[in-house]
Amino acid sequence: MGAVSVNKVAALRVRDVMVKDVAYVSVPGTRKKVLEVFKERQVSGVPVLKEGKVVGVVTRSDLLRNPGEEQLALLMHRRPVTASPHETVEDAARKMLTHGVRRLPVVDDAQRLVGIISVADIIRVLATTNIESPIKDFLRGETPALWDETPLPVAGRIMELAGWKAAAVINEKNELVGIITDQDLINAVVVSEKTEHSDLSMGRDEDEWVWDGMRDTLKLYYNVSKIELPADKKVKDVMVRDVVTARKTSTVSECARKMSKGKFDQLPVVSSAGILTGMLFDRDLLRIFMREEEGSRVSLGE
Q1: Cβ atoms of 88 and 10 closer than 8 Å
Q2: Is 257 a residue whose pLDDT tops 90?
Q3: pTM of this prediction?
Q4: Which residue spans within 96-196 are E strands per DSSP?
């Protein structure tokens, strides 16, 4: 479809945007069954059903957080935030922002699973718009960044303590030279034999669950003392150098297209001289639906 306004996106129904073919598990169930579904469907989290109704969500994080637990009922998160297929995309976005979640199981009136909607799905729709509002209005004060000469174990510890999933990488001239994610660190780790046998392999990056925020295994691996980062490597040795960036004057639609095309959770924001000035996170763009009540209007194109 051609470019549309944010108001038209906001009015879309969840059923028009959600993913309908959703992997799931049922209780009673076991860790083994969850792992089988993760590997078969190449996902890292699924809704949990009981007698056909959604009663929880279980993710790879839950399995890592409770390495000795076998029963699904004790691993899953209960009473998850859900959406109705009849709700608007704006309603779903507001729920994600309010509850700090990145995806919502979609249920009918009988609480039966009919789909799932994620930040990624909404970003994909925003990519079809022509919203001319500059992203400077949506940037947070937070700009995760690391020096490219930082030893990898130190970088990992900083990211763990700060709760960062990704960080921009700068050199001694304060120039942006790369980006590093928890996935890059996981790829660089020396994994113990015990962890190798856990079967918690990473899902495909093109999977919607992985892209929209399930890349949180790094901190959990640290917490259970199952990995160590090589001391002889630095951030510059594992970072991604070909970085897609944005400017403060870049538009919401332009950045949504970049995120959707590259399956990025974030975009470093740079000046004309290549100096890092901020970080735009995908969830920040959901605030486009909150602008009216914040007292300002977005600049829309049809």
Answers
A1: yes
A2: yes
A3: 0.76
A4: 103-107, 113-118, 130-131, 145-147, 166-170, 176-181, 190-191
